[in-house]
Amino acid sequence: MIVTRFAPSPTGRLHLGHAFSAVLGRDKGDRFLLRIEDLDQGRGRPEFVDGIFEDMAWLGLDWSEPVIFQSGRTEAYRTALDHLRELGLVYACFCTRADIAQSLTAPHGDAHAAYPGTCRSLPDDPDRRATTPHSWRLRSAEAIRIGGPPSWREDGGQRFTSAIAEVDDVILARKDAPASYHLACVVDDAASGVSLVVRGADLRSSTPVQRLLQTLLGLPEPTYLHHPLVTHQGGRRLAKRDQAPTLLAMRTSGMGGKELAALLAKGQLPLGFAFSEA
Ligand code: GLU
Fold first, then answer.
1. Residue 109's pLDDT band (boundaries 50, 70, 90)?
2. Which of 149, 163, 250, 258 is most buried, judged by most C-beta within 10 A?
3. What is the DSSP letter of 157?
């Protein structure tokens, strides 16, 4: 049985790209799950959670209950982090919040600079940790030594092995966030038995580190389907501030959600939009 999921973050209204991802996930799965990635307390807003449910209903997409809210999964993330800590693969990092904020949400293809390793060799200092905001990072070089170079299989057969340089000392958690996107994603995909991860090609760069975490945590390996992204005709990316491609705007303009979902299910897009790789 193939289990898929749609895992939006409630940091804005869903747009056409999300709808394509959700429709593809629904069509590829024998069982299709919905997960709300609401760990980023700074950017997430409750009205966007409501918006996700409204938009899913408008598209006519059903999912298997229960909906997972990552904000309710702290204990599971803590257990996973402790496991990595016992393997000696975690260190405290005191670098700035601006740097850290980036890794709490999915990177979506934005070139995020590799962590320069500033805190990697610091001796553990519980006093400093007690008084200074910090995050927890993965010792990626050691992690690969233990877990081996990560590889993954794309739906349809091809296996990719990542270069070691593609795995960074990513943030795993910080004081006010029990898990980063990467850690929460692998823990939850495994807990809900996701066997096929359907998501945009902009998240392909997240797959090596997520596969490595799965190996280290003894979690099963899913298959991946990184689908082309929806852009404006001509290739311009859909931006958060764009109103036109939001499902809310499409609904307001009189478009039918079920008709849109049927179009997307055929791999087609409304006029004015096109597919591109990340
Ligand atoms: N929450 C991520 C997003 O906003 C999706 C993560 C995933 O599908 O792995 O797109």
1. low
2. 250
3. S
Query: pLDDT digit string (tens) for 168-192?
Result: 899 999 887 899 999 999 999 999 9
Residue 273 placed within a domain: yes
DSSP string, 33-87: EEEE----TTT--HHHHHHHHHHHHHHT---EEEEEEGGG-HHHHHHHHHHHHHT
pLDDT at 111 over 50: no
> Could you tell me if residue 198 is inside a domain?
no
Distance between terminal CA atoms of the chain? 29
Strands 31-36 and 3-6: parallel
Same domain, 87 and 49: no
User: Within this chain, do residues 38 and 82 fall inside the same structural domain, yes or no?
Assistant: no
Q: Is 95 exposed, middle or buried, given 0-12, 13-18 or 19+ CB atoms closer than 10 A? A: middle
User: CA 164 to CA 207: how far, in whole Å?
Assistant: 13
Residues 74-87: tens digit of each pLDDT: 999 999 999 999 99
- Split into its structural domains, the chain has a count of 2
CATH classification of the domain holding 180: 3.40.50.620
Tokens of 243: 């109103």
What is the average per-residue pLDDT within 69-77? 97
Using alpha carbons, list the distances in angstroms from residue 11 to 17, 80, 149, 169, 237: 15, 25, 33, 25, 17
State whether the beta carbon of 106 lies less than 6 angstroms from ligand 1.
Answer: yes
Instruction: Determine if ligand 1 sits within 6 Å of the CB of residue 76.
Output: no
Ligand 1 pocket test, pick from 103, 197, 203, 238 with the greatest ligand atom count within 8 Å of Cβ, gives 203
